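REQUEST ID: PR-0412
SUBMITTED BY: lab tech R.K.
PRIORITY: routine
TASK: structure prediction, single protein chain
INPUT:
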Amino acid sequence: MSNQADLVWMIGGPQGSGINLAAETLTRCCMRGGLHVFANIEYHSNIKGEHSYYRLRIAKERRRSHLERVDLLVALDRETLVGDVHKSEVTHRGHLHEMAPGGAILFDSGNGPAPGDPSREDVRMFPVPFRDILLEALRMYGREGEVGKLQIMYNVIGLGASIGLLGYDQDLVTRVIAEGFKGRKAALADLNVAVFRRAAEYAMERFATSYPHRLSVLGGSGGRVMMRGIQAVGMAKILAGCGLQTYYPITPATDESDYLESRQGQFPTAVVQCEDEISAVLMAIGAAHAGVRASTSTSGPGFSLMAEGLGWAGITEAPGPVVILYQRGGPATGLPTRHEQADVRFALHAAHGEFPRIVVAPGDAEECFRTTFEAFNWAERYQCPVTVITDKYTASSYSTIPPFETSGLKIDRGVVFTPPKSGKDGFLRYKFTKNGISPRSRLGDRGGIFWTSGDEHNERGHIVESAENRVKMQTKRMTKLVTAAKEIPEGMMWTLHGPADAEVMVVGWGSTKGPILDAIEELETQGVAASFLQLRLLLPFPGDAVRKVLRKAKTHVMVEGNYGGQVRGLIREMTGVHVRRLVHKFDGRPFSQDEVREGILQQLKSARRPAVMSHA
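STATUS: complete
OUTPUT:
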């Protein structure tokens, strides 16, 4: 199925206008009808009022990224069309310029384009009287006096008009709408369905014959589910037996803790909001020492505050915690609700001094699930903190995927101290071993008393500053990384997608996975054969294996969502191979399939300078 056969639907409006509900309802409806969806949202750091938009890519086959074009736009306000019309400094241009030729815009006729606004002759404009439709539906229930209060339902009008225009199954949509109203909100279901029906009829009667795109039900959903990265991480934590999740609110990481909080009582995972990120990481470390599987989730500024705590976890050889780092635009507060991949170098070196830690970067929701589960095993097996790096794009994007395969998942608690039969206290918590891993005891273990300190110490845990002990103890700790590099399966370190002998090898990590996979499929239709080397384990870095893979290709192109090409530099440091061609993006927005394709083609034509991508 070509990309031109995909339908790209977008809804835009002020934050708080319900665009999330409309977009996610449409996603569910498409999934129920057997279609695939990839959906991503962009929202302003302001809580309410600023412009936000939600984009859905709807297709018959699986898609892993978004496209730049828009086929059908629902504009809940004029700003969605033409940008910051009332501001002295333009912060966004609206979305008219993104419309595909022949595309259509459904807009509120009471808040549409004004004389002198930009326009396009190749885009169909369909005015919809939002207020009149809402008022008509409210009259059916004797609630016409609430039209001002219930303007939030304009989002349902936008959804209904879209369904009517596209000719999709209205009964399927009404069932999904009704499912969203339960308990005390059940009375609103009929009203929302009435508003939806009236809007769908209006668009179908007036505009459908003028618009070529149609959505059809293909059949059942095939068992697929809608999944965001934060949900995948949360589900993995529950399944891995995480007993404590700590956090301090920060965008976009808070969504994961909210998800876990909503399930407290169903699963034995306690979720604690702390007074700050320092407390969050230290509480998780303390729980790990006590034998509880513990985690904390944060974003850039919060992770910075955790650095000293991570060092303490390193020297005390705590069996954790698992830290989920949701990257966003930095530095400082930066772009708190936007996307970036610029925290990787910091994650590799956070905290002063040297100590073992594992850093891994999953590429999508499915990998977030498997990687997070294994992160708890690694934390306890190698007795060190594990950082799982993801980002805002993966965290907040919805995709329709098969249910997770869980049959092969096994919990590994690592080497645990066995109490001696005699009851004598001979336990050496930091015993020197060949693989660097010492047995650990848990609170209450008979004969398992030990001392621990942020100072250098001997095998028993007492503070010792001798040069001889320092060399032996530091070598012991760092040997754990050598052990981990030997034991972690290669399939969780890196993956080569496509033929090893392809002339062009694209290299990427994290959330670039989806756009790259979609882009190289499109490039193949244009005569460019490319493979994709996806890096996942960043520390310990599989240097020898990556070097061998890279040398099989004549041309390499790096794709990264940061300014400096941070992992490109890591590759050169660890393998000696310089990936000369770089496609990068640092405007606070994620890569689209189009941008990756364009960037690769630019770099193949000329690699004199990196290709900087931005379609915003």
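NOTES: The chain has four domains: 3-210, 226-401, 415-488, 491-612.
REVIEWED BY: pending
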